Predict the 3D structure of the following.
Amino acid sequence: MVIQAPPSPVTLHADVEEVLLDADTIAARVAELGTQLSADYEGRNPVLLSVLKGALVFLADLMRTMDVPSSIDLMELSSYGSGTETSGQVRILKDLSHSIEGRDVVIVEDIIDTGLTLNYLMRYLAERHPTSVRVCCLLDKPARRLAEIEIDYRGFTIPDRFVVGYGLDYDERYRNLPYIGVLKPSVYSAAPAD
Amino acid sequence: MDNSPHILGIDGMQVSREGYDRGSVASVLTSDAPPRFAHDSEAELARILDFYGIEWRYEPDVFPISWSADGAVVESFAPDFYLPQIDLYLELTTLKQSLVRRKNRKLRWMRQLYPEVRVKLFYARDFRALMHKYRRLDFLTDVTAANGANGTGNGHSSAA
């Protein structure tokens, strides 16, 4: 008989005011999504496509809960207000590594907020003639949705809070937190302008 | 008296709801000249929409929401943006809090009168959150000063 040690208490980061989703809750839901995807994509070898960088942790965990063959691809898009943007339009900083023509694509996203990035991505992918494109997101934050997105696989619907951790950042910080927490407003309100 | 809802086209002529084609109205409004925005936040939202390739029209339609006994329009609602690809009207409220209550009321009436029209009110806190997300902190001072509350949002570099 294996006696498991009790889970060690989570140390809350000083910049986080509360844990919205703890690591166990996330892991359990990710496993459910993986099971669902495995059933839906049996024999179809889907491409799991993520947009860098926030979805990396979710993608890594999700793909390990799937028991059907799949491949992964990564894209990176310039973000509005990034300070490096001069064209006034989204730029593809890293394109698809392989053709998706005739493939079943699952976009694996960390969070869907306004839907603008995903709306752009869906239009971009449609021009590459995949057989199908579905969306799997860990967090759905519908409060400020501008572009409606059909979400096929949804981890959690969350309130309008500023969340970090499990891959999600603020100014490239907090991605390594094992949980999803609510950032203290004092952190982002006090941030200096670029 | 005809009390059925009407929408005022760009030329002010009333057209019946059944005969109204938002697509054709929007195409008429397409212009190379940028519109004169009432507020900087509207111009910023237009830039964000442009960035992500979302078509928009600025104040293309006026929706009457109340009429006098003789049928004259006494109150109307003109949402700030229409996004034809998404078929969504968008109203930004980043000014005085007293205006928010008025706009909320107008929105309620509009949704009753035009249930098939999708319209979303973007509150000051939503705009602030968007500015935090895109790290456009220079806009926050202006908006926060006008509204007074703190904001929420997400600043993830890849947030969708």
Summary: The CA atoms of residues 21 and 96 of chain A lie 31 Å apart. The mean pLDDT of chain A is 90. Residues 23-40 of chain A form the longest helix (18 residues). Helices of chain A lie at 23-40, 56-64, 116-126, 185-189.
